[in-house]
Amino acid sequence: MIPTRNVNIIFRRKMIGDVIKIPIRLSTSFQRSVCPKEPTKPSVHLPFPGPKSQELFKELNQIQQAESVQLFADYDKSIGNYLVDVDGNVLLDLYTQISSLPLGYNHPKLLKIFSDDHKIRTLINRPALGVYPGEDYPRMLKNVLLKVAPPQMSNVVTMMCGACSNENAMKHMFISYQRKIRGNDTDYTETEMKTSITNLPPGCPELSILSFYESFHGRTLGALSVTHSKAIHKLDFPAFDWPIAHFPKYKYPLNENMCENDKEDDRCLAEVEELIEKYRKKGKPVAGIIVEPIQAEGGDNEASPIFFQKLQLIAKQNSASLLIDEVQTGCGVTGKMWCHEYFNLPTPPDLVTFSKKMQVGGYYHTAEMKPSLSYRIFNTWMGDPGKLLILEEVLNVMQQEKLIENVNKVGKKLMNELFHLQYEFPSVINSVRGRGTFLAFNAADSKMRQKLILKLQELGINIGVCGERSIRLRPALTFQERQASMFLDALRGAITLVLA
């Protein structure tokens, strides 16, 4: 059951007869809120989880395994960057539904989308897009998804979620690899067709996908074979014998450890090459490489542009496709629409997957990757045009409100002040890193992280974790400098309380 704690105050805490006050800056300067009715500050008056959350948990847990539930939210009252729970606590949210809300809660322009009759019909008459798309679907793809496509990527496939996007993108890589060998992807022998039905080669060839330790690409069976972040994701499930390389583990601060980190790049890239050769000799050639720009669930591990440039070169030299998983890092949160734009790749990746803040799942791919036959990449819904309508308005707001500029401005403030905090409290936090507002830092150990998370929650901050001891920031694109100041003050207060 959800654990309970005795907490009934905010911004103060009795300790050995004293009251430690945590000053919270409500505003450093006047800023117009993108969501004007949002609260001015967090407010906590009941412990987490509160009595209503606990009752709802009991009800839900009788129906399904619900141990992952932290609280129950009131989504009618949640607004902007603030999550309100059913017990009336108001939390400044830096986690935003596992990084999936681009504009925060109940943005006024999003609430108006389905006031149009045509859009309501688009929402409720959910089509099997692979066979019966609506007349405006090509326009929607061109004007919404291709409008923000990574440079030089002209094709897009829509899906339901991040996991199924990666799953189908990997299938796409296998099609491409076999086409290179066969010379086409249309002429199949009778033997290939018959053996494919019984899971045997040559119809089902022995191919592999190379992935990295600490990676996370989803929880479907194929995606789990390239996911390596937590045992609980994988226990009891059969997996493919596919190669796993080490992703760079850098020393921080980066500017003080350049030589060591360059050697780490070289070590990991050498391992990639060795594994590709090893699996070629095993008769399981690597058809593709899947990698995150920043390993989110594995601990917000990052790698240099040079690492990704060389990784792409290795893929090309071995006739393998390069799939960059931007499910968490896409849609502007790193300060660019797509995180891999920082890497200055000489040519675009072969495939880029997306979901979360993009509202709809799917992947972009180069024109050369397009399959020749229908039904190769297919399911009933193939995405959701209703979600594309939401994304269309999200992108309009992003442009009108210059939200990627906002991400860079707020991210710079967060990064600079987090650097100061890690130098001031090196025994508590370290290794500040990231891009835009997609940031993270490490606690001294997992126990210290848990203490900080609980104190931050008491102070009205909802935040996430990843890896063994990392705390990650995943605010909405609408997160403002004044809210960054409130978080930073709360973090300083949490550190002070932990050390008291």
Describe the fold and architecture.
With 500 residues, this protein is an alpha/beta fold. The chain has two domains: 51-107 and 403-499, Aspartate Aminotransferase, domain 1, CATH 3.90.1150.10; 117-400, Aspartate Aminotransferase, domain 2 (3-Layer(aba) Sandwich). It is built from 15 helices and 18 strands. The strands form five sheets. It has a seven-stranded mixed β-sheet, with helices on both faces. A hairpin with a 5-residue loop joins strand 3 (82-84) and strand 4 (90-93). Residues 1-21 have low confidence and may be disordered.
Please provide the count of β strands: 18
Main beta sheet strand tally, sense and closure:
7 strands, mixed
> What is the approximate shape?
globular
Task: State the name of the first-level CATH class of the largest domain.
Answer: Alpha Beta
Distance between the termini: 30 Å
CATH superfamily of the largest domain: Type I PLP-dependent aspartate aminotransferase-like (Major domain)
Structural class: alpha/beta
Number of helices: 15
What fold name stands as the CATH topology of the largest domain? Aspartate Aminotransferase, domain 2
CATH architecture group name of the largest domain:
3-Layer(aba) Sandwich
Beta-strand proportion: 5-15%
Report helical residue fraction: 25-40%
Question: Uncertain segments of ≥5 residues (pLDDT<50)?
Answer: 1-21
Computed CA radius of gyration, to the nearest angstrom: 24 Å
Strand order across the biggest sheet? 5-13-12-11-8-6-7
> How many domains comprise the coordinates?
2
